[in-house]
Design a protein that fits this description.
Length: about 200
């Protein structure tokens, strides 16, 4: 099968998200200039550079009360900071509960029953029990082709690692089992890992 996205795929559901998988989930927490806290998961998320460490996530939807985007991007535009919380399998239901469209005044931490605490280097909340959190200062927001498509880039200014996830000096993902996004309504969990040595190592 071959298709050009502009002409449609003819399948019951869009296969694009199922092709580019698995994708890490960036559980983005922000605080608005009015002090309102927000938490939402984004599966268009990844690390993009080592030095300085940088990450990105993309928002591809719109809320009626935010004009051209969602609460996360709106808050980041106003404050210039955000936090990326890593999602573990044990918190899959809370992550999913925070994904619904809610009013700007609604605190997803409270709605989903998620304990929060403040970040250290930025004025922003974070998921208290997350295996890891990346505190980020905005570097740029890029408008992408299409309606309400924005890529948000940030420099990581602080990193929280949960103590039980550090084993023999390494951050061990098998201690918390990261959740990953697949296509459609499907997810995956990382339980097994293996190593490969590069030819020039």
């Amino acid at each position: 099968m071959f298709y050009e996205p502009k002409n449609g795929h003819g399948l019951p559901h869009n296969p694009f998200n199922a092709v580019v998988t698995p994708r890490p989930i960036g559980w983005i927490s922000t605080r608005g200039s009015d002090g309102a806290d927000n938490l939402a998961p984004y599966s268009f998320f990844n690390a993009v550079a080592y030095v300085p460490p940088q990450v990105m996530f993309a928002s591809t939807g719109v809320k009626a009360d935010q004009g051209d985007t969602k609460d996360s991007v709106s808050n980041i535009r106003d404050t210039g900071v955000f936090a990326v919380n890593i999602v573990e399998y044990a918190m899959r239901d809370q992550m999913n509960a925070s994904s619904g469209q809610m009013t700007r005044e609604t605190d997803e931490f409270d709605t989903a029953g998620i304990a929060k605490t403040d970040c250290t280097t930025i004025d922003c909340p974070r998921v208290a029990q997350a295996p890891a959190t990346l505190e980020c200062k905005l570097t740029q927001i890029v408008a992408l082709p299409g309606a309400a498509n924005f890529a948000v880039f940030g420099e990581v200014t602080g990193i929280h690692l949960r103590d039980d996830c550090i084993v023999d000096g390494t951050f061990d993902v098998t201690r918390f089992n990261p959740l990953a996004r697949l296509g459609y309504r499907d997810y995956a969990v990382i339980r097994d890992v293996f190593s490969l040595q590069r030819p020039d190592d």
